[in-house]
Amino acid sequence: MSTTEWTPPTLRPQDELKAMTAYVTEHGYGDESKAYVRGIVTALNWVLGESAESPITRTRLGRPVEGMDASSERSRAYEALYANSDPALWQVTVDNGQDYTLAVEHTLAWAAGGNEGLVVPADWPWPQDR
After folding, report:
1. pLDDT classification of 2: cutoffs 50, 70, 90
2. What angle, 0 to 180 degrees and rounded to 10, lies between the N-to-C axes of helices 98-111 and 87-96?
3. Distance, CA of 16 to CA of 19 (rounded, Å)
4. Full-prediction pTM beyond 0.90?
């Protein structure tokens, strides 16, 4: 039986993350709501170090965000979508809307190198299969 060694998630390149922020800020994200777009931008700003607080748990790392941080926050965003989750997490969804929380979850999945999450424009210059 072969075993594959686990490797932690790594963030996409900074220039790609910045390009997604600029694209979504200028064009929106398809026909998604303003709350969804705000969730994308908020998550990307945190990953890029432009915001000290994480978008769901409000954690302050005091260091640059790493892939595992984004992956962990993504898990908490997923939890925050459900009323029976930790009350502090659910409150983020109550305060910001389900679209916001869902966008944070999708964005952090993508930012942490996943093939799921956000759909990039057709002419996106970075490879998506990681």
Report:
1. low
2. 110
3. 5
4. yes
